[in-house]
Design a protein that fits this description.
The complex is a heterodimer of chains A (212) and B (139). Chain A is of the alpha+beta class and 212 residues long. Chain A contains 6 helices and 10 strands. Chain A has a 5-stranded antiparallel β-sheet. A 5-stranded antiparallel β-sheet of chain A has the order 3-4-5-2-6, covered by helices on one side. Chain B has helices spanning 36-44, 125-129, and strands spanning 3-6, 10-13, 18-22, 52-58, 66-72, 78-82. Classes of the chains: A alpha+beta (212), B alpha+beta (139). The complex binds zinc ion.
């Protein structure tokens, strides 16, 4: 029995042992999702990089050529392929990329960003473990968020492709509208359990038939 | 709840911000030359203004940037939002009838009618300050 699915390398073994911040809620997310109405899941282990650089400097231009641009102002998102850059502040950005982009899995994104920044003023910090990602989708996704987010989330104001750093359910989170009816929410890891439960609670009413 | 117009992000709830106390309190030129009393006054003594008061705010849940704000401590009216390091936009300390209108410098933002120049943001002051229920709350 010893040879069944034994991880070949220590790296694989480490990967199989890791637990995402909202993993204990996985079953609850599945049970609480209402198909075609509002659905919630965790997208674990995305690669995230904290960037601090002046986008008008030489280093900023070099970094932008790696990431596919740096967003110009509040709300905007740039990127190329499956790498996105979210605006967090005038000189602060969050790069979000697939799990495989991480250097522990052979990705070179972080190294490329470090090299682009060079010795100039700024930061490239691996923040992959800082936040987790929730994906909230469905025609009721907006109504769920509106219970705890004071931004105007109506589609005439909040367009798909906008990301804003704000509060959801009284905790700080980055809210990224990825499609007309889909949102990505980035809470800090320590808030993942709270926000996960908060979202489940907010979703609960849509599982019941509508009261006329 | 105050609605504060961040120069970078637009109008947001007060809970997203951190209060930084009185603005324009300069660090003493030569701290070593101060008497204990003068040092204590620099550290701890602040104006307790009734009326327009210049204060610092940090948009801690948003862009994490500091800015200055001129706020009436009686009415809570926000008369001006202006960058750190720039002078107070009104005649300092004097409450005049027209402080809230055209008193700001070119690079600052009034909260009355001008939203910050940010394309693509969701935060126009009018939409946020509405007190009615959000439209999406009902089918
Ligand atoms: Zn801000």
């Amino acid at each position: 029995m010893a040879e069944t699915a034994a991880p070949a390398t220590s790296a694989q073994k480490n990967l199989s042992l890791r637990v995402s911040p909202a993993a204990p809620l996985g079953a609850a997310f599945e049970a609480g999702s209402v198909q075609g109405v509002v659905e919630l899941r965790e997208v674990p282990f995305l690669t995230m990089v904290g960037l601090r650089v002046n986008r008008n400097s030489g280093a900023g231009e070099r970094v932008a050529s790696v990431t596919g641009g740096l967003p110009a102002g509040c709300g905007s998102v740039s990127g190329t392929g499956n790498t996105s850059v979210l605006w967090l502040g005038p000189e602060e950005f969050l790069v979000v990329a697939p799990t495989e982009a991480h250097e522990s899995l052979g990705g070179d994104l972080i190294q490329a960003l470090r090299e682009a920044l060079g010795g100039e003023a700024g930061q490239v910090v691996d923040l992959s473990a800082n936040r987790t990602t929730f994906e909230l989708t469905g025609p009721r996704a907006r109504a769920v968020l509106e219970k705890g987010c004071s931004l105007d989330l109506h589609s005439r104001v909040l367009q798909a492709g906008t990301a804003l750093s704000t509060e959801i359910g009284n905790i700080p989170a980055v809210l990224w509208k990825t499609g007309d009816e889909s949102f990505r929410i980035f809470p800090r890891a320590s808030f993942a359990d709270f926000l996960g439960r908060w979202l489940l609670d907010s979703m609960r009413e849509y599982a019941s038939p509508e009261v006329p | 709840m105050l609605l504060i117009s961040c120069p970078n992000c637009g109008s947001r709830d007060e809970t997203e911000f951190h209060y930084g106390g009185q603005a324009h309190v300069a660090y003493p030129e030569n701290p070593n030359e101060l008497t204990d009393r003068e040092w204590a006054e620099y550290l701890f003594y602040r104006d307790n203004t009734k009326g327009a008061f210049a204060e610092r705010w940090l948009h801690s849940t948003g862009c994490r940037q500091w800015f200055n704000m001129l706020r009436d401590t009686v009415t809570y009216e926000i008369q001006a939002v202006y960058p750190m390091g720039s002078p107070r936009p009104d005649a300092a300390g004097k409450v005049t009838a027209d402080t809230g209108t055209a008193s700001t410098a070119a690079d600052s933002t009034t909260t009355g009618n001008a939203s910050p120049d940010i394309s693509g943001t969701s935060t126009s002051p009018t939409s946020i300050s509405s007190t009615t229920a959000p439209e999406g709350a009902t089918p």
